[in-house]
Amino acid sequence: MMTWIRVAVSRIFGPLRGRRLDDEFDEEVRTHIELLVERNLRRGMPPAEARRAALVAFGGVAQLKEGRREGRGLPFLETAARDAVYAARMLRRSPGFTVVAVLTLALGIGLNVTIFSAFDAVAWRTLPVGNGDALVRFERWFASGARGNVQYFFSYPEYLYCRDRGGAVSDLIAASWPIRVLTGRSNQDASAADQEWVHGQLVSDNYFSALGVKAFVGRTLGSADVRVPVVVLSYPYWQRRFNADAGVVGGILTLNGVDFTIGGVAPREFIGTANPPQVPDFWAPVMMQRQLDPGYEWVTLPGERRLQMLGHRASGMTSGQAQARTAAVTAGLAD
């Protein structure tokens, strides 16, 4: 219960912490770009070209910053107020939410990466998901052990590699950082009545099933949706945009000029897996990246690491056993 109170308070007072949040975000961006630069240098690129290619590959930095700053403006205060009420209602309806520890499972990938010696609890979360106390998050720990040398993102090919080989984690899922998308037909004019900026998350097709999350209305994503333009709406966005009309299921939500079928609505208590907690407006299949995040098709590239990986620690497995199996599985991955 206290976790939800902290989430609501942090959202309401977020604008007062803008400078610190900007600094943390800038550090995360710099770390990611430097990783790309180092990779390009190892491939023989001159320093200037290596940095330019890294910036192009990373893409959208200015847009990401703008979106975050907008999120701390006056519109965000209105959203925060709605979120606070929303959180309070959930607490009244379901006071027994399971509080789970999100654990880290470090991967040994590449010559400059070492395997972290054990699981390490990094955050406490309120997630209404199945088997929540076994939920783990993957991360890389680099040789220096410094905070700036920890990376939480992986490429889609890396995700498929780990998912298909099992190992210490079952029901492995992938989820992108938030993407900013314009609704409606035109990407040039946001003044039309049917247009607004929304935030979504690209996820693997097993995202909801692995977490044990069932739709409130309609359905969630499934294995048949890998390359299908379909979205699952969050409960708050469904209420705000569609007035909680169940009839929108099966209808169309146009994003970046592309028609997406509304498959269903997530349950009201599901806040997603972002850290810190932030409920997206929608979830879509990760293979729809080019349609939703145009300009650079990164999803099929092994070196483009933009996805977090989470899953459940295999039943009956100790931390040491899980670490050993993870090291064996990831040994075949190239940097």
In short:
By secondary structure, the protein is of the alpha+beta class.
Structure in words:
The chain is an alpha+beta fold. It folds into three domains: 2-93, no CATH class; 99-175 and 306-330, no CATH class; 178-292, no CATH class. It is 35% helix and 23% strand. Strands 1, 2, 3, 4, 5, 6 and 14 form a seven-stranded mixed β-sheet that branches. It is globular and about 50 Å long. It starts with a helix and ends in a 5-residue tail after the last helix.
List the total number of helices: 10
Oligomer designation: single chain
Distance between the termini: 41 Å
Number of domains: 3
Structural class designation? alpha+beta
| Element string (H = helix, E = strand) | HHHHHEEEEEHEEEHEEHEEEHEH
Describe the main β-sheet briefly. Answer: 7 strands, mixed
Helical proportion, percent range: 25-40%
How would the blueprint of this fold be written?
Elements: H1 2-12, H2 18-42, H3 47-58, H4 61-70, H5 74-93, E1 99-107, E2 113-114, E3 120-126, E4 135-142, E5 150-151, H6 156-164, E6 169-176, E7 179-182, E8 197-203, H7 207-211, E9 217-218, E10 230-233, H8 235-242, E11 252-255, E12 258-265, E13 282-285, H9 289-292, E14 307-313, H10 319-330
Parallel strand pairs: 1-4, 8-13, 10-12
Antiparallel strand pairs: 1-3, 2-4, 4-5, 4-14, 6-14, 7-8, 9-12, 10-13, 11-12
